[in-house]
Automatic annotation (TrEMBL):
A molecular-function term among this protein's GO annotations: protein dimerization activity
Protein name per its UniProtKB record: HAT C-terminal dimerisation domain-containing protein
PANTHER family tied to this protein: DUF4371 DOMAIN-CONTAINING PROTEIN (PTHR45913:SF21), EPM2A-INTERACTING PROTEIN 1 (PTHR45913)
Species whose genome carries this gene: Micrurus spixii (Amazon coral snake)
UniProt-listed Pfam families: Dimer_Tnp_hAT (PF05699)
Residue ranges annotated for the HAT C-terminal dimerisation domain, each copy included: 179-240
Length: 265
């Protein structure tokens, strides 16, 4: 929508000329106040569209979504501060329409305040779950163990004292601490020793901003288990699905180097 509105503003002279050939007149196209409102909406919608695309990326997990929403809320505050002093630096479409003329900034400041309040209300759960997500992204950072354990306990429905013991044990594990930069760190954590933390880590990882992963699994399953392959076992189907939907690319050269050539007899 933002791109369409911005394109409309860019072509408004051509649109007026076209309407004139049809003996039609739209007074809003000559109304400066209406054009300023439209330009503000175009700039804002472009930013909202960018946020929407970012949140629905296939690889976007909960930590990334929280970061994106907090970043956008910070931008809202920054844009509001610009408008309060009538600076249109973050609003190129508005700058194009307003130019060096004066304009009433109060309605736009009020709209951004309302939008910020809406974001706070709609993403309130992000604020409550953020300490948990931060811990699982960086489990060895200094934290309030009691507060973090309480939040994790509520999420995985576990006793807070048991979660505390696992957090303390994990943060003092020298071997795990040396592997904290590993891409799949939580796969290295012993599920027998830290069952609650492993369970919660898997739960956090399963939160996506898009249903694309689920939809792709169902469509792939329908393709793999066709009417001609009805005798396929669940185990075989699970293996086929993992290979089909995974974005992992094996190192074929390394695998080939590790295989023994079959000598002819």
């Amino acid at each position: 929508k933002g791109k369409i509105l911005a394109r409309f503003l860019t072509l408004r002279d051509e649109i007026k000329a076209f309407l004139k050939t049809k003996d039609q007149y739209v007074e809003q196209l000559d109304d400066r106040f209406w054009l300023v409102d439209l330009a503000f909406l175009a700039d804002l919608m472009q930013e909202l569209n960018s946020l929407n695309i970012e949140l629905h990326r296939n690889d976007k997990h909960l930590s990334g979504m929280i970061s994106s929403v907090h970043s956008f809320k910070g931008k809202l505050r920054l844009w509001k501060s610009h408008l309060q002093v009538k600076s249109l630096l973050p609003f190129p479409s508005m700058k194009q329409v307003v130019g060096d003329s004066d304009f009433n900034n109060a309605p736009f400041v009020g709209y951004l305040e309302t939008l910020e309040a809406q974001f706070h209300a709609r993403f309130q759960q992000f604020t409550s779950i953020e300490p948990v997500v931060s811990f699982f992204e960086n489990p060895f950072s200094p934290i309030d163990v009691a507060e973090t354990a309480m939040a994790i306990g509520e999420l995985c429905q576990a006793l807070v004292e048991e979660v505390k013991m696992e957090i303390v044990g994990l943060q003092n594990d020298i071997i795990l601490k040396s592997n904290v930069s590993h891409a799949n760190f939580w796969n290295l954590v012993d599920a027998q020793k830290f069952p609650l933390l492993r369970k919660t880590a898997a739960k956090i990882k399963s939160y996506f901003g898009s249903t694309y992963q689920c939809e792709s699994v169902f469509s792939t399953r329908r393709f793999i288990k066709s009417k001609n392959r009805t005798r396929m076992t669940d185990k075989h189907l699970d293996d086929c699905l993992r290979v089909a939907i995974s974005s992992y690319t094996p190192n074929y050269n390394r695998l080939a180097d590790g295989m023994q050539c079959q000598a002819s007899h």
